[in-house]
Sequence to fold (889 residues):
Amino acid sequence: MRRLKAIGVLIAAGALAAACSSGSSSPSSSSGKASGPSGVLTIDNESGGTWTCDFNPFNLSYIGYSLGPVYEPLAFVNTLESGKATPWLATSWTWGAGNKTLTFTIRKGVKFSNGNPLTPADVVYTFDLLKAHPTLDINAVWSVLSGVAASGSDQVTMTFKTAAVPYFYYIADQVPIVDQSVWSKVANPVTYSDKNPVGTGAFTTGSSTCTPQNIKYTANPHYWQPGEPKVGTVNYPSFLTNDTANTYLANGQAQWGSQFIPSIAKFYTSKNPDYKYWFPPVANVSMFINLTNPLLKNVAVRQAMAYAINRQQASTIGEYGYEPASNQSGIVTPTFSSWLDTSQAASFGSNYAHSTAKAISILEHAGYKKGSNGIFQTPSGQPLSFTILNNGGFSDWVAAVQTIQSSLKAIGIQVTPENLAATTYQTDLYTGKYQLAYGSETGGPTPYFELRQWLYSANSAPIGTAAGSNFERYSNPATDALINEYGATTSAATQHSIVDQLEKVMLADVPVIPVTESVDWYQYDTGSFTGWVTQSDPYAQPAAYNYPDWGQMLLHLAPAK
Amino acid sequence: MRFVARRLGFFVLTLWVAVTLNFLLPRLMPGNPALAVLGKFKGAVPPQALKALEAQFGLDTHQSLITQYGHYLGDLASGNFGVSLTTEPGTSVSQIVLHAIPWTLGLVGVATVLAFILGTGIGIVGAWRRGGRLDSILPPIFVIMTVIPYFWIGLILILIFGVKLHWLPYFFSYNYTLTPGFTWAFISNVLEHAILPGFTLLITTIGTWILTMRNTMITTLAEDYVRMARAKGLPGHRIMLDYAARNAILPNLTGFAMSLGFVVGGAILIEEVFNYQGVGYLLLQAVNNEDYPLEQALFLLITVAVLVAILLSDIATAVLDPRTRAAR
Fold:
C-alpha cells in the first residue's frame, strides 16, 4: 500500500541493471568480545520526512519512535499469536469483579534511565495524565475506565465503567509508562517535545544523538533485563521516499527493512543469500459499500458483488501477490486461521468463492434485468452503475481496483474508479461521501478488533460527519449486542463463538467486501544479526513501524558472530 | 525616482494579493490535518484517535473565515507563523523553515548562480564565434539536457556514480553518523554529498541560459553600433563584452533574478530523489499533510522572494538600460 511512483519503477529498473555489482559494504561491526552490547543495526523504513527529534510518547507522531525501545508498556500483546499477552513492566494481571476490574502487579527492580525506580505510583500517574489531558489519550482508554489506583505494595487496580476486556490491548500494550518526577514538572504535556526521553527501555536516545537525518539509539547499560540488549547501537535514518530506502536496503547499508519493494526477488533477495523477507498479513483491504445508497441497500447487489470480485486476481495483479486474497468472513489468514469458521463459510458458496455465474443468477433472482448496454437495471430502469473511491497515491490499490472494475463488468455492474489525492480520499471516506470505496482498517491483535471497526454502530456517523471506522455506516442492534458481549468475557470459547457469529454477519449481510490482506512489510539480513522474527517464530509484528513490537524485536536481536 | 516609487507601489499591491491568496488556498483544499495524520500511519492508528487529533490541532474550535484572516494578518505583521500541525507537530514554523533554508540555498542557490555564469559565458562566446567548435558542441548538448526531466538525470547519475562505481554518496545531505559542526570532516562530507545533486541541477539548467544568451547576443551582434565598433577597430573582446554582451544580457538578467527568487522554493524533485532535507521537500510534505501554518509560511516566503527579486531586477535593468527609464 506504499506509494509506487514512476521514479520508483525507474530506480528499481536501474538498480536491477546494477544488480551484478554491489552487495558489498559490511553493515555491522560486531566486536569479538562476548560481553556487553555491540554491533550497529540500521533500520530502513520510509518515514517521508526528516526527524524532529521529539519523543513525546503520547503524541501520535512520535510514539512510533519511543514506545518499545525507550518507553515500555505494562504488557506485550502479540498480534501474530492471536493476541497472546506476555509480561513487560507488569509481571502479572488478573481480571476481577465480573471483568470490571483489572489488577496489574508491577515489576520490581526496574529503573528509569535517570536512575529513579519504577513504582506503582508512576503507573497511576501515567493513567491520570491521560485522564487529565484527553488529547494525550489517543486510544481513548478513559472512555471505558472509571479509575486507576495503587493497591497493596506493588499493584495497580483499574476499574471499568463497563466490561471492556478487549481494551486490555490498548491499556497494557499501547500506553507508555513515564516517570512521575519528570512529567509532573512538565508545564504542558500536550505540547511537550520530550527531547531527552526518560524511559525504562533497553535503549536511550536524545538531543545529543538525534539529528534531522538520523535517530541514534544507544544501549541502556542499566537496563533491568540482565544481558539485554545485545545490540549496541540502532540507527534509524530518515528516508524521504520509498525508492531511496529500497536502494539503501538492497545495497546492504541497512539490515532491517520495513519496505514495500516491487519485484523483491530480483531487487533484494538475489543480492545476498542472507537477505530474507516475510510479509505476515494483519488486516484486510476491503471494498466499503455505502449502505445509505438506495441501490446498494439491497443485499442481493452486495452478495452478487462479493461473488463477482476475483480476489486472487486483485492480489496477483495489484499486489504482486505479496498481499494474499481475503475471504468474505473477514478473518485474516493464516494469521488468525484458528478463528475462521470454515463450515459456516462453506454454506455461503465456499466463502463467496469467485463465481460469475452465481453472481448473475443472484441479480436475476432479485428482479434485475440487463439493459441494452449489458448493465443490470432495477425494474424502474436505474442501472447498477457506481463510482468507487480510491487513494490514487497507492499504485497497487489503483491496479487492484482495476481488476475489481473488470470483474464487476463481467457480471453486468458498472464501476468507475475515482482515484483521488490522499487527503480528498480520506475526507470522502470518513464522511461517507462515496458509493463504493477501497480502503483498509487498523485491525488489532485478534479478528474481533477489525470486525468491531467495521460493524459497531458506535464507530459510525451520519453522512457528512467523520465516522471512526464504520465507513459503510452499518448499524444492527443484534450485532452491537454481540460486540458488547465480547467485551465482557475473558473466556476464549465465548470469544470464538461471538466472532463466529460476527463472521456470519459478514457472510449474510455483506456490509463490506474484503479483497486482499494488508501485510507487515519486513526484510531482514541474517548475515549481520540473529534472532529475527520468522514465520516459525512470530514473536512480534516484525515491521519497524509497529510499536511496541519493534522494542521486543530489539530485545531478541543479537549481532551474528 | 518616480520609476522606483511606481515599482514599489506595484510590489505592495502584488504582495497583498499574494498574502490573501496564500490564506485562502490551503483552506479551499479538501480534507483537514487530522485526517492527513491518520492516513500517514499506514493504518497503525486506532479510529478513536481522530477526536484526540482534532482537539490537538484546534480543529474543534470553529472561527469564521474573516476572524481567521484578521488573526493571520496580525500574526504576519508580527512575524509569527505559528506552529506546525502535522509535519513536525508543535515546532515553530519559522524554526523549521530556518533549518531547511541553508541546505536549499547552499545546493540550489550555488547551482543556479554557477549555471547562470557558465551558461551566459558559453552563450556569449558561442555567439561570438558562431559555428566554432565550442558553439557546435556545448549548446546542443546542454539544450538536450534541459528537456530531459532533471530527476531522471539525477537517477541515472545515482546509478552510475553511486550504486555502480561507489564514487560518490547519493543520499542524505551528510553522513548521518557524523555530528554536525564546523569541522573539516563534516564540511567536506556535506560538500561531497552535494556534488551529485548540485551537478544534476547545473547540467539541466545551464542550457536555458546558453540558449537565451546566445540568441539575444546574435541579434545584438547584427546591430549597427557593433558594426561601428568593429569599424573603429576595437579589440574583439571589448566588442564582445562591452558592446554586445552588456546589451544582450538584459533578458537573461531578468530571468536570473526570477530564478534566484525561486531558489528558496527548493528543487522539489531533486531533493526527493537525493533524500535531501531542503525547502522543496518541506513544501511537498506540508502540502501532503495539510499543514496550513507551514504551507502558508513557505508559500509566503517564495512569493516574497520572487517579488523582491523581480523588483531588484527591474531596478537593475533600469540602471543598466536607460531606455527602460525613459519609457514612462
Remarks:
- Chain A touches chain B through 72 residues (CB under 8 Å).
- Confidence is low (pLDDT under 50) at residues 1-34 of chain A.
- The two ends of chain A are 36 Å apart (CA to CA).
- The first strand of chain A starts at residue 38 and ends at 44.
